Amino acid sequence: MSKLRSVKGMNDLLPSEIGRWHRLERAFREAVERYGFAEVRTPIVEPTALFVRSIGEATDIVEKEMYTFEDKADKSLTLRPEGTAGCVRAYLEHSIGNVEPVSKWYYLGPMYRRERPAKGRYRQFYQAGCEVYGDPGPYVDAELIDLVVSYLSSLGITELEVQINSLGSGDTRERYRDSLLAYLRPLASKLSEDSQRRLERNPLRVLDSKAPEDQAIAAEAPSLLDHLSEDDRAHFADLCAALDAFGTPYRVEPKLVRGLDYYTRTLFEVKGLGGDLGAQNTLCGGGRYDGMIRELGGADTPAIGFAMGLERLLLCLPDAETADTLDVFVIVQKPELRLEAAKIARALRAEGLAVDADLRGTSMKSQLRRADRSRARFAAVIGEAELAAGKVQLKDLRAGTQEDVERSSLVARLSR
RNA sequence: GUGGCUGUAGCUCAGUGGUAGAGCACUGGAUUGUGGCUCCGGGGGUCGCGGGUUCAAGCCCCGUCAGUCACCCCA
Q1: Interface ipTM
Q2: pLDDT single digits (tens) A330-353
Q3: Across the strands, what pairs with A38?
Q4: Which of the residues A97, A219, A284, A411 could staple to A308 if both were Cys, CB 3.0 to 4.6 A apart?
């Protein structure tokens, strides 16, 4: 075993497993493009300040999980821990808001957080996400949730639960925080150790604590939904109505809160219920962040987005038939014929066929075995007798039948 | 970051202080021009790493690294 190893929590994706990734990614692009999204690619490295200002200084991500370093000009840079901040930065930097009223972007790529690795959670991990700028909702909110469900079901991932909530806008969150604190403070001594710490820092998180003693207290806590303004309430009601109309199943979860500071109004999560997921069963998290663009120096622009962790999706992705990756595997009878075989392979490739060949000069048995495992539909045997007759022996690897085919009609025969 | 469990061949794992193993995978042959099935053979290991105890350590002890589970947090 080599002493050179990949960095902890950062993994290789080898060719043998990449087919599943391609399936995930292809289905994602197809799904989001059906909903009118276009891809954006932003840098992996951004100025540290971008994340501090957008995600929030007091969040765990910014406080202890970012890969931050200084470049040679003493600029503080950070490997992106999520996708939204970079998108917003690009949206502002290129004044997209002046060019079009609504922008629908998607992204797909690696993110970096220095957490303790576990199944479904790595230090370099892949997220796919969407962002919508310029539409205040609520119908686009419903579309986004519907999009996620539709994407997941196109992958065969159907054991899931959509949870939605509204955090309100303006000072709703502060007012709710105050009344929650008024309720929790007298009970502080009965809370778990973790929640006592959360109390002053982020009391909303006490609500989704897993400790049994906290859950009893959280169950009786004042509800966020009772603190919404009339407008926020209408926004949420319209979102629910839209989801009902779409037939998208969901559950209103008033205790759903999320770690990032920037969310307003609509908040949603999709939990996976099946597969190999352990505690990392949040497949998708998203929400509205109407205040962020203004806060980062842009015009007042409503925004909503979500992100999905692809490693987690993979954990509940059902196995599927993988299509043949090769049309033909070329087999050489004896080493002297290798150049002839290579020429035939090349000619077939020029016709658009996917062709592999074993040009090492090994036994036919070994070549046939490779052909069998390469998932090629046909093997083309190049032998002395066939060459002399201007033919190739074409073997159907699934049926086990074989026939001699004129070289001139090989492409036509294979294209059938 | 906290606590628990596990590290033996590419993979899944057996090995209870005394010569390093199996199945699968890879590879050669049985069949000197034909895959999958069968049979026979072959290669592949500093037993995660470092230290300690012992005549002797894969096995016991300590440390460390990695993986994993729960918590924390989150996609």
Answers
A1: 0.88
A2: 999 999 999 999 999 999 999 999
A3: A105
A4: A284
